[in-house]
Every structure is written in C-alpha cells, then in structure tokens.
Amino acid sequence: MSSIQSGIRQIFVGIVCLLGAAGASQAQSQNWDDTLAEARGQKVYWNAWGGDERINAYIAWVGKRVWDEYGISLNHVKLSDTADAVSRVLAEKAAGRTNGGSIDLIWINGENFAAMKENGLLHGPFSETLPNFAGVDVEHKPSTRVDFTVPVEGLEAPWGMAKINFIYDSARVETTPRSIPGFLKWAEANPGRFTYPTPPDFIGSTFLKQVLIELAQDRDELQKPFTSEERFAEVTAPLWDYLDALHPHLWRKGELFPANGPAQRQLLDDGEVDIHISFYPSEASSLIATDLLPGSARVFVLEEGTIGNTHFVAIPFNASAKAAAMVVADFLMSPEAQAEKQNETVWGDDTVLAMSKLSKTDQQRFNDLPRGAATLTPEELGATLLEPHPAWMTRIEAEWQERYSR
Amino acid sequence: MLLFLAPIVAGLIGTWLPAVGIFPALGGHEFSLAGWRELFAYPGLGSALRLTLTSGILSTFLSLVLVIGFVACCSERKSFQALRRLIAPLLAVPHVAVAIGLAFLIAPSGWLVRLFSPWATGWTTPPDIASVQDPYGFALTLGLVIKEMPFLFLMTLAALHQTHADRRLAIARSLGYGPVTAWIKVVLPAIYPQIRLPIYAVLAFSLSVVDMALILAPTTPPPLAVLVLRWFNDPDLSMRFVAAACASLQFGIVAAAIGGWRLLEIIIARLTRSWLTDGQRGYGGRALAPVFGLAASSVCGLGALSILGMAIWSFARRWRYPDVLPSVVSLESWMRQGSSILTAGLNTMTIGLAAAAIATTLVVACLENERRQSVSSNGRGIWLLYAPLLVPQIGFLFGTQVLAVHLNLDGTWWALVWTHLLFVLPYVFLSLSDSYRNLDERYVRSALCLGASPGRVFWRVKLPMLLRPILYAMAIGFAVSVAQYLPTLFAGGGRYVTLTTEAVSLAAGANRRVAGVFALLQALLPMIAFGLAIGIPALLYRHRRGLRGIA
Amino acid sequence: MSQSNERNESRNSLALRGVSLGIAGRALIAPLDLDVAGGEIVTLMGPSGSGKSSILAYVCGTLEPSFDTSGKIFINGQDMTGFPPERRRAGILFQDDLLFPHLSVGENLAFGLPQRIKDKQERNARIERALAEADLEGFARRDPATLSGGQRARVALMRTLLSEPRALLLDEPFSKLDVHLRERVRRFVFDHARAEGLPTLLVTHDPEDATATGERVIEVQPAMVDNPSASRTPQKNHEISTREHREVGIIKKLSL
Fold first, then answer.
1. pLDDT at position B202, please?
2. CA closest to A295 among chain B residues
3. pLDDT 10s digit of each residue in chain C, 256 long?
4. What percent of chain A has pLDDT over 70?
C-alpha cells in the first residue's frame, strides 16, 4: 500500500517537476506583458520585517497600488526577523515542496540573502530584466549589485538605500560623538545614556561592523571572507577591546540591549537613552512628522563615514506566484513607489534610482518631497562605507553572543 | 483523540531526530551529538537555564501560594467576591497583552514611575534600573504570576465546589479549628489532587513560555525557549541541530521539573501527615488574611492597570516621560490600523470561533458518549488530554510544522484551526466536564420515562439546561485560541495574521501607540465572548430562576 | 381524567418475573416475583442502599449497564425487558420534582404530552385541564422555580400523567416535602394513580407512606457481607455508588 502511494507520489512529483521546468523555460521567453497577464489575480505573500508601523503602512499602500494597477492581491506577512522566512523556505525544501511554497516575496539582504543564495533557495535571475531596473543607479550605488560583497546576480531586486546615522534630542544633548573612539569618550562622560540593539538585529550588527571597519587597519581585508581563525581573532581584537571598554558605560551597564531599532527609538523618546541608531537618512524627520520623536530631534554622522547598504526583495525558488511577485518587485523600483518611500511623512528611505536616468516629471516627484529640519543633505551625510563580507558578520554575531550573552 | 495527539508525538520525534543529527534536508543522515556539543559549548546556556528555572518555578510557586493563601485566609472577606469577579476578565486577557502592558507599567520610564516623578522621586530622566527584562527574570515572573494566578484560582474554585469544601470547613470549624488551619488541614488535602494537573500545566507553560518572555525577559541571554526559537530561525542552517538539541533539553527540563514537583508533593505529604492530626487548632492564620488579600489584589490590580495603560496608549499621540497622561490625544492609531485591525481581527475571530465550536462539539459528544456508554473517565485519559499543555510548545511545534508541510497542510486555515484545537480542547473539556457530569441524571430519566427519545432528551433537555456552561466553555476555548502565539506562527505559516501575532511583532517594534491598539483589541475580544456567554443565557432564561444555580 | 378511560378499560398491569439485581458479581436483590394490578399501589420498603430504587430503574429501563440483571418486566402483559425507556411508558416520580428549569410550567407539561397529539389547540386544552386538576389554573406561563414545593410536586405528577404512562413508579416522591404538605401531595398522587387505574410501585423508607396506601408492603432487608459499619452510613438511594456496595438485600414478603 505504502509502496504504491510512494510510487504515485514519485510520478506526481515527476510530473510537477516537468511542468515546472517547462514553465521556467517558457517564462524566459515571455515578454513583460505576458508576465503582467499571468500576474493578474495572483496572491502574493510578501514576508517582510513588520516591526515598524510606518513601513507597514507603506507596504499597505503598495498593496493598494498593485491591486488597482495590476489586479494583484498583496499580503504583508509581518516578520519579527527575516530569518523566520529563510527558515520557512528551508522547512518547505526539507519537506520536498518544490512549488506552491508559502512565500512569494521576501524583504532581504546581507547574510539572509547569502544563506538563501548558497542553499539554492532563490528564484531567478529575474531582477535585471524587470523594466524599472533600468532606472537603478548601479554606477554610483554599487551595493545595488553587490549585497554585502556577495554578487546579486539578478537574484534580488534593489528596493532602498540604507545608511547608518544617529538621532539625538538636541533639547537634551549638546555634544555628539564624531567617531567610534569618540563614542567611547562620550559614553564615559554620559554613563547609561547610549546603547545599541541586540545583535543579530540588523542595526545592532551594523553598529558592530561600523566599529570593526573604523578600528581595522586593513579595510580591504574585510571585503573578503577571513582566511583563518587566527586572522579573524587578530582583525576583530580591537572591536572586542572597544566593546569591553564601552559596555560598562552603556544603558543598563551593557547587560541588556534593546530588541531592535524601534525599541531604541522608544528609549530615546522615553528619555532613557540619548542616542538612537537609524538606518534611513530621512528617518529622523519622518519620526518627528509622525510624532514618534520630539521636534528637537536631530541627526549626526561620523567623520570617516558610516556603513551604507542596499535592501532588496527576493523570490523563493518555490514561490506560488512568481509572476505577480516579479510585478510587485518591479513596482517597488518604479519612480512612483520610490518617491513615496522616500517621503519623510511616509517612511524616509532613500531611493535606489539615479535621478539622471529619470524623466523630468519623475525627477520632479523627488524634488517635490518635503524636507524636514532633521534631514541632512547628501553632502552632510558624508561618505558611505562598504559592508564587510557576510562571513565576518555571521561570525561576529556569534562571537558577540558568546562574549556578552551569558 | 489520536488525531489530536498524533501531531504532538510526530512533532516531538521531528524535533528529537535533528537533535541527534538526523535531518536529511540539511544533509544530516547519521547519528551525531554535534548539536548537543555545540549547545553545551554555548556560554550563555548556564544563565539561560538559571533564568528559565527560576522564573518558571518561582512563578508557579508564587501563583500557587497566593491562591492557596488567599482562598484559605480571605474566603470570608469582601475582597474575595470582588476579586472573584475580576478574575474572569483577567483570565480572558491574552498573555501578550498583559506582557506589553506590564512592560510599560513597571519600566523605569513607565507609568508607575511617572506617577511619582519628578515631584517625589526627583528623576527628571528615568533611572537606569532594569525593572523590565531584568537579568533575574523578575519581570517575567511577575507577568506569569499575573496570568497564572487567575487560572489556578479558577481551578481551585471549581475544586472547592466539587469537594464540598464548605461542609468540610464547617465541620472542622465546629470542632474548634481556626479558619485557616481548618482550611489547610481538611480542604487542601482534598482539593490538591484536583488542581494538580492544572499546576503542572502552569509549570510547563511557565518553563517554556515564548511570547511573554520575548517582551519581559532579558535578551542576553534569553530563557531557553526563546533561544530555541532564535536558533530555529537562525539563517545559519546548521544551528537547527543546536535548536533541536535545546528543544529536547527544554522538554527534559519540563519533565524533570514536573517530576521534582511531584516528589516534593510526596515528601511534604509525608512530613505533614502527623501535623494534620496533632490536634493543633491554630487560630493565628487570621493575621495572614490582610497580607494575602493585599498581595492577591495587587497582582490583579497590576494586571488591570497593564491593560488600562495600553488602552490609554492606543489613544495617545504624544505621551512622553514624565507625563502621567498623554499630552496629545488622537484616534489616529486606530484609524491608520483600520485595515490591519480588520484582517487580524477577522482572522482571530473566525479561527477562534471555529476552534471553540469544534472543541465544544467534540467535548459535548465525548461527554454524552461517556454517559451513554457509562464509561467512567479514567485518570489516564485526562493525562492524555492534558498532554498538549504539559509538553513545551516549542518542543514539538517545529516537528509539527514539518509534518504539516509533508501533508501539504501548512499555512492553511484548517491546519491553523487544528493546531489551535490541540490547546483549546483541554481547556474546554476542563471547563465543561464537571457541569456536564453533574447534571442530575434523573432529569434525563424523567424525560425518557415521559416517552422522549434519547435524541430529543439531548436536544430539548440537556443542551438547554447546560446552555450556560456550554457557552462559557466556548468562551474559554475562544479566549485560549485568541491568545495562541507560537502555534499560529508555526501552523499559519505566517500567512494568518492574528491580533496576537500582530501584537507581538509590534511589541518588538516598541511602538506603544499601535501595540496598545492590538493589545486592547486582543483583550476585548475574549471579554466580549465571555460577556455573550454570560449574557445570552441570562437573557434567554431571564424568567427562569431555577437555571441560575446550574453552571 | 377523561383521556384515561380507554386505559382503564384495557386494565393496566405491571409484573416482575424473577427480577434479580447484582453489582460487580455480588447479589443485591434476590429473584423477585411481583404482580401489580391496575389501580393497585405496592410499596417496596427498606433502608437506603438496599437496591429498591434500582428495581424502579430496572422497571423503567434507566438502570446503569454496570448492574448485573436478570428477570423480566411485563407491562400490560407485554414483555418490556430490554426495551428503551421511552418505549416502556412507565412514568416515574422522584423525591425532587425535576421540572425542567429552562421550560415554563406549561412547557414542562407539553413535554410530557405524546407527540401524536398534533393539534395545537388540543395540546393546550389538555395542559389547561391538567393544570385545573392540580388547582393551578393560569400557571402555564410561570417559571417552575417560582412555585411552592407542593405546587411543583403536583405539576410533576401531571407531567407524568399527561405522557399517558401504563405504570407509575414512585421513588420516595414525598420525602422532601414538609410534613403538612406531604399528606396532601400523597393523597393527590394516590388518588390520581387509582383513578387512572395505573399499577403503581412505591419505593420509600417512610413507614407512613406505606401505611397511607393501605395496601401490600414488601420489605427489602439488607444483609451484611463484611463491613457492619457500612450499613449504618446513611446513603441516598439514587446515589448508590457502583464501587462501595457491600450489601445484599433479601426480600421478605409481608401481607397486611
């Protein structure tokens, strides 16, 4: 009985694979109109971090737009950690589900992308064939094609530009640090008034990388995986020394860290800390506009520049609605969606597009955006430091856990 | 029955196999203890273990002591009745809502401090004290006590009713025993066996709680259950083996804790045997009454304030430290969340109603069958029913998820309802079985002898007479379903957003305005259910005085 | 009652043939033969726990299956053994009136009325008649919980009689009533039972009940097996526990 069943299942799987393969080869020859036609009526489950109400509201707006425009029903599956989605796709692969997967689109970058790419969990390449990809500023924003040093190779579509900046309440704080060593001095002078989100939260981890880069002797070495354990220990030694010195002066004496960025934002607003680490250059103004921070909130950056990266959307290998997922990914890169996203009263996340590649009217969309008092000009924002290779990141996160989570 | 236990067993196996290195999808085909080695090499394991054990055992112990102390000392006081009324709504409030509210209430920049700052405390900025997410897990313990005390209290009340405690007490009092001593000597030994399983369920839950721990427990390191979740979700897929090992460890700890607790029961029973009959009347217990009265009321008060705080947050636009009340009020949080409230609320309601209705139907069918077949429920049956409450969720849900994926059921509405049923069913059974079994069998006999068929007797006599307890059990089932976090996350494949999953993810994002909206809604839905469960029979039977006693 | 005339003529009867009860392999009631003619009231007397209530449960078909039983029950000469209770049509009254609390007085009576009487007006008329007979005119819409003990007992009897029983079983129906009420309710029940020509089996431990019938009394006497103190513990009949039974009843026939 069971052998018959397994036999039937094998045949079934075989047929499904054949159909899938046929579908895939067909998809390549399809032009965009066919994709649009196929996408109409599909349901897209977009797994995206859901910890920020403003981002959730923006995603809801996208949902409304793609419904009106393309007849796609977009569902935001709110994650507390993007790794949850990676985990789910893996569980589906473990169970042999090669299509009809439960996730159609993931908001992703860095180590999660590296993990999915390495395990063959991604659909594509697709992103560079999307119509709106033509507007992406691949020349001046190289992180749109290399995600944390890992080549994207069309497996994810760029969505937004993040860059570390620091928000403080100018009504309460007069001097702000200008460098990583400066942070230590500042913390010593203001005990208990600074902290960073618990790694592996992406903002917390990025702060660690900022320290690593600024204290490293050879920054280029960080662009490749580390060559040996000894090398890792040597290169990261200044980081650990720094943290050992910094932690006693942090909020809760470095024994407790906020869960994520918004949690730290709440601490800033509650007056428990004086500095909040933000990933979006216009976030401060956005938070003021939405009354989540006082009007006296301002932004500072570091002299030697801060880490910047690109965040993307990717499609799992077994997504149920690949066509619609691609249409959504394309819409996210459209000038309309990008300008809305950069709007400070909405989210304040910088665009991946190049103004020079846009039409006059589209450029105007961006020029017309409101500009809050807390938003720095691109010049003021300073240099962008490149993300290290994910291998460093993964290892540093684990090492951090070992050292400070006991 | 099997249908309900199968996922647990399969889930446990699906979790244990990877713990010993077997997980084909990740290339694990051979027996290996690497996962365990890595687990024990984790430097935070000791602290995580300590945190888990102290918060889990302490909260269970405190809840039990509070309940017993309060019932023993205060059953004649006015506060007893007042608290009795407050307890049902508190029981209905999901853990997450309490956790979110409590976190705001007791934080250094929280409501309690704001009430006294800066005029009394001098704190112009909040003090740097870890009163939430403290390294000792006291905040988590407090949160658990707030939620578990009402549950044990309700279970104790039911047991008191069953064992005719008032008569026992009256006899002991007439023999000259002081009220508290009398209670402990003649009532406690009778009711303890009845509340033993609920206590174990509380112990197991407290040792493996995830949703509350995410909000109230420290993060470096978190309790074991949160570690398991974190490792299961680690992008480094080899961490699955460690996660599975940790989940198995978690299972072992719960089993050991229950075993240890049982052992302690036996020892205490032995040691106090002679004390029971040594004739000491003990009049001193009365002095403890105010202490327990105050302690129990404070716990309930904290619970109520937590919800109130969140209710106010949901209407706040600006509410900074040290303002006691919001400086700017608006309805915006509710308006902006309109569509997600609708989706999450509808999902919560349909899943909750389905799970509660199915569970109630099954339980009624089960109890009716039990009566007709005259099979007396044996002790083992009730243990099986309790199994989902005694096995740590995190220990089997991952395995269950793989099973559901294999059956192509994951992320479907039915898988979700099915998983909820695992947890809803025991509570519905617990709440309904006594009323059902206690219905005077002679009503049925009279009706049969009047010529009514068994079916007619069931529909026309039994169901209407039991309407109140049945609806009440349904409301409990609904409340349990509403509160489920992990099962919804795992079985729903993240596709089904409920008020609870939304509240947890927003609590992590720390936007209190929106978290307040969801916490409040999450608390309101079960309360509405309870209101209906009490209101409908009251309305239908407003002219039927004889039914008020049956519940 | 007019509708009972036909039954009077058909001469109801109740017969027990070799009925014995036991539990867990122990005999409880030795084989009992008993004939009750229409209109006759036979009393089974005995202390609590002697199994006399179980005999009634066996007659009306609601005895728990955990009992070992043998013997046959004949109602109107028809072997009813093994029939479900609703087919036997043996009405029973307990010491509590057991009026359904969710139904009004009238609805309780309607529950007793056979389904074959379809006509709404006819049903209402019968209920009104029954109420009048119990001196409870206009009580149809009342909540049973608002009635006095005596009124409730009368409604309970009327509900049973409306179901057109072929025999009447009385399980200590007067023991919970006040002394002054007891006499009146007793007479009310007995008069109706006789008027309807129902073979009636009364179980009681109150000698006054037995005297009041002025008819046959059968004493169910318990015999100790191993635990002398057990018999002295008062137990209610309907609470016969299935596990703690240590008594064997022997039955002695008395004539008055």
1. 93
2. B318
3. 444 444 444 578 899 998 888 877 777 777 888 899 988 999 988 777 677 888 888 898 888 777 888 889 999 888 988 888 888 888 889 888 888 888 889 999 998 888 888 888 999 999 999 999 888 999 989 998 899 888 999 999 999 999 889 999 999 888 888 888 888 888 999 999 999 899 999 998 888 888 888 888 888 765 334 333 333 333 333 333 223 333 333 333 333 3
4. 92
- Indicate whether A377 belongs to any domain: no
Which chain C residues touch B453 with a CB distance below 8 Å? 84, 86
Whether residue A376 lies inside any domain: the answer is: no
Residues A47 and A174 in one domain: no
pLDDT of B132 over the 70 cut: yes
- The whole model's pTM is what? 0.80
Assess contact for B149 and B301: CB atoms under 8 A: no
A277 and A212 in one domain?
A: yes
- Give every CB contact of residue A111 below 8 A, 6+ residues apart in sequence: A148, A390, A393, A394, B235
pLDDT value at residue A186: 96
Chains A and C touch (3+ CB pairs under 8 A): no
Could you say which of B44, B321, B410 has the minimum Cβ distance to residue A270?
A: B321
**Is A325 found in the same domain as A290?**
no
Domain at A241, CATH number = 3.40.190.10
Are the CB atoms for C49 and C222 separated by under 8 Å?
Answer: yes
Burial of C243 (0-12, 13-18, 19+ CB in 10 A): exposed
Reported as a single tens digit per residue, the pLDDT across A164-209 is 999 999 998 989 999 999 999 999 999 999 999 988 788 999 999 9
- Are A169 and A228 contained in the same domain? yes
Residue A81 to residue B340, Cβ atoms within 8 A: no
Establish, for the pair of chains A and B, how many residue pairs have beta carbons separated by less than 8 Å: 173
What is the dihedral angle through the alpha carbons of A214, A217, A222, A228, rounded to the nearest 10 degrees? -130
Cis peptide before B118 (omega within 30 of 0): yes
Residue B433: C-alpha distances to residues B192, B340, B390, B437 (Å): 18, 37, 19, 6
A19, A150: one domain: yes
Look up residue A391 and give its two tokens: 């291998």
Total structural domains within chain A:
2
Backbone phi and psi for residue B294, each to the nearest 5 degrees, phi listed first: -65, -45
Name the one residue in this structure whose structure tokens are 């489950």: A45
Q: pLDDT tens for residues B182-231?
A: 888 888 888 898 888 889 999 999 999 988 998 898 887 889 998 888 88
Instruction: Report the gap between the CA of C237 and the closest CA in chain B (Å).
Output: 12
Residues whose CB is less than 8 angstroms from the CB of residue A20 and which lie 6 or more positions away in sequence, other chains included: A98, A99
Whether residues A115 and A234 share a domain: the answer is no
Q: A255 and A172 in one domain?
A: yes
Same-domain check for residues A7 and A48: yes
**Whether A272 contacts chain B with CB within 8 A:** yes
**Contacts of residue C99 in chain B, CB cutoff 8 Å?**
546
Residue A274 structural domain: 165-308+382-404
Distance (Å) of CA B21 to CA B18, B67, B227, B245, B348: 5, 44, 19, 9, 37
Is the predicted ipTM greater than 0.85, yes or no? no
Q: Any idea where the domains of chain B sit in the sequence? A: 334-551
Q: B186: which DSSP letter? A: I
User: For the domain B334-551, what is the CATH code?
Assistant: 1.10.3720.10
Interface test with chain A among B233, B401, B410, by most A beta carbons within 10 Å: B233
Query: Is the CB of residue B20 less than 8 Å away from at least one CB of chain C?
Result: no
Q: Is A396 inside any structural domain?
A: yes
| Segment (H or E) for A404 | helix A390-404
Give the nearest partner residue to B505 out of A80, A95, A111, using CB atoms.
A80
Q: Is the dihedral of CA B55, B60, B63, B66 positive or negative?
A: negative
